[in-house]
Amino acid sequence: MCGRYASSKAPSELAAEFDARDETGSLAPEPDYNVAPTKPVFSIVQRHPRDAEGSPDPDRSERTVRVMRWGLVPKWAKDPSVGSRMINARSETVATKPAFRGAVRYYRCLLPADGWYEWKRDSSPKQPYYVTNPDDSSLGMAGIWATWRDPADPEAEPLVSCAVLTTEAVGGLAEVHERMPLVLPSRDWAEWLDPDNQDVTDLLVPPSAELVDHLRMRPVSRAVNSVANNSPGLTEPVPEKDALFGS
Question: According to the UniProt entry, which residue ranges have a biased composition of type Basic and acidic residues (predicted)?
Fold first, then answer.
C-alpha cells in the first residue's frame, strides 16, 4: 500500500524533471516530508488544450504540474468524505472497479515523490522504512484522478482529487509489506500520461526487479507515525537490528 510519502521539491523542479509546465500557481504546497491522505499533492497530467469555447485540440497535448487532493472523490459521490477511504487503487482491479475504471481509461496522472514510507508487518512496534532513489531523482507513482462538483453548490470550485495505484511488492520490498506503489520507470511515463491511450493494461503490472533493486530502503524514526511531525529528519536512517537494505 501507500499511506505516507515525502514530496519536498518545488514545482519548478518537478516541471523540469517531468518535462512539464508548472500550473500550480498559488496552490503549490510547501515541502512535505510526511504527506498524508487528504493533503494537497503535486501531480503530473497530460491533456489536450481547450479553446475559448472549451473544445479540445486533438492535434496536440500539454503536460503540466498541478495540485490535487490525495484521496479520490468520484464525480458521483454525494460528498467528498469518501476520499479519505480511497487513497489507493489496486492495479489488479482498477480497470474493473466502478469507482476507478473510468479514471484509469481517461484520467491518469503521475504523483511525484522523493520516496514513500512503509511499515514492517511483523515488527512490534511496527518499524517504518523509507524507500527512495539513491540519486534523489523523483519516483513517478502511477495515479488516477477525478473532478467532483458539489451537487448542493454548483457554483463552488470543483474538487480535483487523486489516488495512488498499488501493486504486489517485488524483491526485498516484500519482506516489509506485500504491497507497494506502482512506480513507473521514466520510459513509461509518456505512455501512461497519453490522453489518447485508453488501454494501459501492459503497465498495470509490478515493476521490474531491476527497478526495485535500484531503490534504497532504510529504517527511519517512528516519529513519522504522527502526521503532526514534518521535517527532513523523518527520512534519515536510524539504527535497526533487522534492517533489510543498506542506507
Answer: 48-62, 238-247
The pLDDT of residue 154 is 82
Q: How many domains does the chain have?
A: 1
| pTM value > 0.85 | yes
When pLDDT is averaged across residues 99-115 and rounded to a whole number, the result is: 97
How many angstroms separate the CA atoms of 82 and 94, rounded?
A: 17
Residues that are catalytic: 2, 118
* Sequence-separated (6 or more) residues with CB below 8 Å from residue 177: 1, 118, 119, 120, 121, 169
**Cβ–Cβ under 8 Å, residues 193 and 110:** yes
In a domain, 244, yes or no: no
* Distances 125 to 66, 120, 122, 221, 227 between C-alpha atoms, Å: 37, 9, 9, 12, 17
Range of the domain at 43: 5-235
Phi, psi torsion values for 38, nearest 5 degrees: 80, -5
